[in-house]
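Customer ticket, subject: "Can you confirm the structure for F-box protein PP2-B7?"

Message body: Hello, I'm evaluating your service for our small team and ran a test protein. I'd like someone to confirm that this is what the system normally returns, since I don't have a reference to compare against.
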Amino acid sequence: MEGFGRLPEECISEILSLTTALDASRSSILSKEFRSAASDDVVWERFLPPDYEDIISASVSLHKNNSISLSHSLFSSMVAKW
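Agent reply: Thanks for trying us out. I re-ran your input and got the following:
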C-alpha cells in the first residue's frame, strides 16, 4: 500500500471514481489516505445520476446529521430506496 500512499489524494480519488461504489466504500478501510480520498465528492458524483442536483434537496436533512460528504449521503439514501 506504500506506493499508493505516495500519490496525491486527488489521484487516489480519481482512481476510486473509476471503480464501483462498493469498491470505493470498501477502499476506505485500507488506510487513512484511502478513507479521505474515498469520502471526496469527486468519487461519489460519478456514481450519481446526471440529474442528482435536482433531487439533492431531499437529502439535505440526512446530510446535516452525518459527517460524510453530501454526494456520499445522497448516494447512500438512493441505494436504500432501491
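A couple of notes from the result: The chain has a mean pLDDT of 80. The CA atoms of residues 5 and 33 lie 7 Å apart. Feel free to reply with more questions.
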